[in-house]
Queue: 2 jobs
Job 1
Amino acid sequence: MIAVARRAALAVLLAALLAAASARAGTPYIIVASTTSTEQSGLFGHLLPAFTKASGIAVRVVAVGTGQALKIGERGDCDVVFVHDKPSELKFVADGFGVERHEVMYNDFVLVGPAADPAKVAGGRDIVAAFRKIAAAKAPFVSRGDDSGTDKAEKRIWKAAGIDVKPVSGTWYRDTGSGMGPTLNTAAAMDGYTLSDRGTWLSFQNRRDLKIVVEGDKRLFNQYGVMLVNPARHPAVKQALGRRFIDWLVSPQGQHTIASYKINGQQLFFPNASDSS
Amino acid sequence: MSDLAQASAVALALIFRLDGDLLRIVRLSLGVSLTAVAIAGVISLPLGAALAVYGFRGRRPVIVILNALMGLPPVVVGLVVYLLLSRSGPLGMLGLLFTPAAMVVAQTVLVTPIVTVLVWRAVSGPWTAYGDALLVDGASRLRAIPELLAMSGAGLLTALLAGFGRAIAEVGAIIIVGGNIAGVTRTMTTDIALETSKGNLPLALALGIILIALSVGVSAAAFLLANWRTRP
């Protein structure tokens, strides 16, 4: 019994080592820390195979919130960071963690809420006014609370509305500390409002009674940027491969591929690399 | 109930289609968890037996600590392994972060205390009963360990299966150190978390059903193997 177990264990170990070795010998790859919105909206599933086909470089995506993605980049654990919070991206570059920031594309945030609309905000275009109404009605609002790009955008809107959500957290304001999908699941289950990026919303499948209640405010603009992790700080960064990925994203071919991604005929991301200075 | 029925239908469809992505994810899940249990076994079998055989001072505190470590929170283990394997961490030059090897490391840490304690439990009975006999010919305690393990077969199997159960079911540690990268470090549990995030609940539950079936399969295979070996 022991002998068999030991032999089996050895075989498994060898198989695992072999698998690891063969994976390492395969195609060159880069690691991209990015956001849940780009991964879960299906954009990467559409975009990355096109890049790999054009370049022979595989892209391994670690999809987390923008805050965490930037942290992974700070520690040198990825080659490229592809996120959506311009102020923290600019700080990332200014602090010397990233180089060569390029704007890639944009979409927008939408306020989603229950069809019953207890705060009576549906159809409005002023997002700040809508947030004030939700607070006044004490209607359930579900927050990401995870320092992601969407979370930071939401916090900026509360600030603009002059509402401090800290003291009401746990009452009508519910901080889930989770990704966009889980937050939408929670909002759907408790008939709450939440701010979502449009990409994740369009690809999200468990909407129940949720629908878009406010959209179109220019303060809901959502810009995505890409940066190479600073190779001077982290020598292990695959700078040549990472640069090729960034160059391809902002190239006409990359931009066209982004524009061609649609769900039910609706375009999710709008390329705007040529706009950036 | 209709949710469960729908999920079962999705699960069956996935299995009968021999879905390529699913096969890869299943293979990775089994590969990572079985490797972690194998490594934990290599450490835990002698260690657990030694705990029974040697009556050293400080044995009780060691056992108390090991018992406590059985409840190690996976997310904490994931975080610590992440910091160790990060490029900015002490083992960063190995480049293991976001690879299956990193997941094996994390699961080995989680599983080893469980297997060690259960091995110790399994051999304690036989040691009380036959310990004197094993040492009677002046054999050293070290020499007694393999014989003691050999007579504790079924209990050791349970120990290893408990370790496997912990490994295959856990998501907190491997999602941090593996990164849930499609085709590279995406396992059954991280995929279930992802599909739940997407709101694709039938697919998430279907994957859950397949995962449970896999666990049953591994457990059944282990018992068949044990029976087959002990048959005269």
Note: The domain at 2-107+223-275 of chain A is CATH 3.40.190.10 (D-Maltodextrin-Binding Protein; domain 2).
Job 2
Amino acid sequence: MSTLRAWIRRLAGTVAASRHEREIADEIASHLQLHVDDNLRAGMTPAEARRQALLKFGGVEAVKEEYRDRARFTLLTRLVQDVRFAARLLRKAPAFSVTAIVTVALAVGVNAAIFTVLNAAAVQSLPLPESSRLATVAFRAEGGPRRGVAGMKSMLSYAEFQVVREQAPVFERVTAFAPFYGATLGGGEPRPVSVTLASCEYFEVLRVRPAQGRTFAPRDCDRGGEPTAVISDGLWRSAFAADPAIVGRTIALNRHSFLVIGVAEPGFTGTQVLAEDVFVPLVFLKQIARESSLLDSPDVSWLYVIGRLRDGVTLGAARVNLDIVAAGLTMRSPAGRIVHLDASRSTLAGLPEIRSIVLGVGGAIVIAVTLVLLIACANVANLLLARAGARRKEIAVRLALGAGRGRLVQQLMTESLLLAVIGGAAGCLAGLWASAAGVRFALAHLPPGISPVIFDPRPDGRVALYAFALTTMTAVAFGLVPALQATRGARLEFRESTTTDRRGARRLQSVLVTVQVAVSMILLLSAGLLARGLYRANTLDPGIAVDAVSVVEYDLRSAGYTAEAAAAFQRRLQERLRALPGVRAVAEAGGAPLSDQHRETRFTLAGSERSVMIEFSQVDAAYFDVIGVPVVRGRVFTPADLASGRALIVTESTARRLWPGRDPLAQSLVLDGADRPVVGVTADAQLSRLGQADSPYVFLPAGPESQAAMRMLVAAAPGALSARALRDAVSGLDPQLAISVTRLSDNLELWRAPSRILSAMAAVLALLALTLACTGVFGTVAYAVSQRVREIGIRVALGAAHQDVLRLIVRQGMRPVLVGIAFGVAGAAAVSSVFVNMLFGLSQHDPLSFVLVPGALFAIALAACYIPARRALRVEPTLTLRSE
Amino acid sequence: MHDDKAGVWQGTLALMILKTLETLGPLHGYGIARRIEQTSGDRLNVNYGTLYPALLKLEQEGYVAAEWGMSDNNRRAKFYTLTRAGRKQVERETRDWERTTAILARFLAPRENA
């Protein structure tokens, strides 16, 4: 107790040091006075009395020192001293301090923001109660026959899930589920919803309570029972106007009745990034995905499996348990296959495939951002080096007075740490804001027609730790070398007392500038290329008529149409659409141009063994007219072609590529064992990818069997046709279909959106890098000039022309810049292949970017050199000479 | 040591201070120093200054309390008082000290007997 109290008092003493200092001085004075009084009474002379008292007391300063040590913690005191001293210095040089702090803040902020997002996606547990005990089970097969995949490879089949459920006692409960996006919720206005098929344990495992009604009970999960559903709070509000009597109502999902048994608690939207609206027992798979036989397929990956670990069970124990289960599965599985099961903490990106994508993309971004941080560190190091030069005399004096080099380095490092901590703290706050704002920006710029994305990254202890580590590392990165540099050999120079140029520091500065320029060159070039790509995406003529073409989509397959019924429906719909006022032409197609609906298959060249993978789409005769792609040779599909399916139309470049120098109309391709002759050749157009007109593409006739998968493309006079009219035309035939009407030009957005997000990010980073690099160049040259003011003065006094001196300084300043530009251009050329997809046909070594950007950087660096050099020359030479 | 004036161990100095305060009541640093010297029959050589860090330590530990006041001959001085915890500490330390000396005495005694 008394020890603890003493510690607290000492701590207090450390803070209130000056009060203690006065206290002891007073007490010693009083003590001496009392002693002197006694001595006088004993008959000594005043001088002798005082002398004896002092002698008896011992060394006053030594006592004070001992008292001081006792009064507070020496190390802490030193730290407080250092921090105070550092704070005073920083206040005295506000320009330097602000530059350094802002630099660190920007770099740490951006880094922390990105990490927050990555952390939320791939590290943080799901935002559910006690989610640290949730584990995602992943499947991996080694060898053996090919396995079906409906989703991702590491998902499980229903039979495998049942084995895990029975044989993994490490889990309190295990659930399996599969989200299906794009089911249709019937009603006054049918709408697409996402339905998650889940095993009975779903809500118990995730610890999600019903806000109304109940969640799944065992009886809901009997095959052949009454289909039931739990809906999300969001859907309850948006589709059912928060109907208080929703529980017990029947809703239609893909034309099947489901009894609503409950509403999930507000905020719960499933475990994926895309919001899930309805939760249905797994056994009703057939009602949602009509022809699906997944439940009875023992060897298809299609189910997410999440288990809740028992209290006190670690992931390691779960893995051991799953190894045993996997061994059992290996015994049952086809010969030659070894099954592995793994458990990992359940995160938003839960499965290994998704996690590796997220971490891969995130890692690339983190590398880019770390490069910026590196420039920032180089910059601050540069500033510190420059300052260390200015403080050489102070440091030499302190060394001469007996300060240890270690103590001085400690002092200098304290300054760096103080800068870093202030900058880091500011950066963290900025980063918090930036991560939220960045995610909002990205979500707001998603292409139209994508389901709402639920992603709200929240920072946690890991983010704080990351930011703290980053800040500390930053301080060491920019502080240590200058601190060592500054204290080395300072003793010698004190004697000389001049400002001779120091080679080591200069060389280091040059290297720093080179690195900075190279790194910002890479970022700038990337941003430049991406911006050019974006510009191209926005201005590119896709070669098809995107304006005034509407795409009408509905899902006949999930609505239970047979092939004949679908064909009849499409025929009647086409008639209705053509009858609408303003409609110029109507076509049907399996995939709209520039959508993500293109399919790819293997065609064999007739009369040879050669086969190629080619993208294709099934279309009718009017298609080419509707999208404005002319048929340059041959003809479009005839009704006979459409009925038989034995015909092909290819694009010009496809023909050139497949049959160079031969007449394409005399050729044919083999698909599914049937010979399909080429009947027409169209002009090249950007059909499947924006910016690529010459990739092979084949049109097949939209035959009677594929009618259920067709969508309508309607060309009309501009402004003549409303989405409402198109919608009514479909719902007039079948009121229970969920209909989507988009403009063909919306598909361009699909390509522009990622490009926009990426170029915005790259631009921000590159601008940051450019600013930092320019500050670096400016600082270095300014420093070099300040070191050479005397030399410049002498040169000018001896009659050197201003021009020559200027040239000398600028040449020296620009040397590291040029080296940096060269390295940067080489680096950028190497990395630009990463985003070649975002360039829309632009070369990844686009000459315009590769000339303009280095040119701009060169010009800016030149200005950064010129300004301080110019300033130095303006100083009166006699003045500079006299000041030395 | 040939000098017949002994130095003071840090630990024992604290006990001497506490005991002095227990006997004489509130006292300033100079008074405590004089008293220790007198009690030892001038056989202890205390640099008066060493007293103050020891007093500070006792104060931090809460065994003594300090307050500025006036001395008999009207001089401003800092007076130290034994606290309740200090009183207990005197008892405890006295006991410990007696035990230690008893043990040491037994160590030293047999040699004379042997």
Note: Strands of chain B lie at 27-28, 64-70, 76-82.
